[in-house]
Amino acid sequence: MDDHKQQLLEKFEQIKSKMNPTSIKEEIANLEARTYDADFWKDSKAAADVMKRINSMKKEIEDIEMMELLLAENELKDAEKLITSYEIHLFLSGTYDKGDAIFAIHAGQGGTEAMDWTEMLFRMYTRYFEKKGWKWEEIDRVAGEEAGIKSVILNVYGNFAYGYLKAEAGVHRLVRQSPFNADKLRQTSFALVEVLPVLEQQEELDLDPKELKIETKTASGHGGQSVNTTYSAVRITHLPTGLTVSIQNERSQTQNKEQALKILKSKLKKLEEERRIQEKLKLRGEFKSAEWGNQIRSYTLHPYKLVKDHRSGYETSDAENVLEGNLEDFIEKYLES
């Protein structure tokens, strides 16, 4: 047996020991037994959470069995990929790491260029979500004046969505020839990625209405047509911290307010968690601004091609592959560092 296979077998045995498949199978059986109770489906939200947990654990069992099969058949490349993925899973042990995420991208310095860059990032990340098998929904978008996206907010649903995506929070810098001027000048643009955990209902904070400033206005429809002015923009400011959330989408004022409150509660919960464990990471509004020198990753398309993460040092010259949503190596290298 070669050394590489022996190392993979040792890693697999460590993963198997930590995950304890026998215990997982017992928990699946117990939860499935609950689904036959007459009252189980009366609380649809609780029932959905249980079914989600069952499916997640079944996937873990399938993956353990697949690791064993791939090693037995000497499919070492595929085995290593799956084993590395589970090593990351075991490392992600934070309070919210296994759960869903609120994911936002905001244009920084660079005007129309930055808004176009934000749209490029939106495409890159949604392709990454699809490769991971995660579901996502767009809950707010502010289009750029001439092109691209000024800001966009998504809900991302999937196992370890928050654990993986928190690695992407920060400023992303693009260097390329500008497609927006005839001289094709070299242009630098910035966008800010913000990642928040989705809180379970029982975890949500109770907010004092006296500490909230809520502003609403009728938002303009596409093209300024009055027929499309049937929804309202909502901006909520938490006065003690100064945190703000704005939602403008084709929903009612009540729905937009609910979404804004949900995001604000997640921001406050995350801030509370960060203070509790004395982390140095900051929330939107306390991040370093989206400008030169503060980037976590640079994407250079001209005069050469290079994507480099400034935290882990990992880089690749295959920029097109990264922009197609192939981010796994960057995220894993960062989480391992």
Task: Provide an overview of this structure.
This protein has helices spanning 3-19, 21-34, 44-72, 76-91, 111-132, 161-165, 253-276, 319-323, 328-336, and strands at residues 101-107, 135-143, 149-157, 170-177, 186-197, 212-218, 232-238, 243-247, 295-300, 306-309, 315-316. The protein is an alpha+beta fold. The strands form two sheets. It has an eight-stranded mixed beta sheet. Strand 9 (295-300) and strand 10 form a beta hairpin.
Describe the secondary-structure layout.
Elements: H1 3-19, H2 21-34, H3 44-72, H4 76-91, E1 101-107, H5 111-132, E2 135-143, E3 149-157, H6 161-165, E4 170-177, E5 186-197, E6 212-218, E7 232-238, E8 243-247, H7 253-276, E9 295-300, E10 306-309, E11 315-316, H8 319-323, H9 328-336
Parallel strand pairs: 4-9
Antiparallel strand pairs: 1-3, 1-5, 2-3, 4-5, 6-7, 7-8, 9-10, 10-11
Helix pairs in contact: 1-3, 1-4, 2-3, 3-4
Write a brief caption for the model:
This protein is α+β, with helices and mostly antiparallel strands and 337 residues long. It has 3 domains: 3-91, Methane Monooxygenase Hydroxylase, Chain G, domain 1, CATH 1.20.58; 101-196 and 279-336, 2-Layer Sandwich (Alpha-Beta Plaits), CATH 3.30.70.1660; 203-262, 2-Layer Sandwich (Double Stranded RNA Binding Domain). The protein has helices at residues 3-19, 21-34, 44-72, 76-91, 111-132, 161-165, 253-276, 319-323, 328-336; strands at residues 101-107, 135-143, 149-157, 170-177, 186-197, 212-218, 232-238, 243-247, 295-300, 306-309, 315-316.
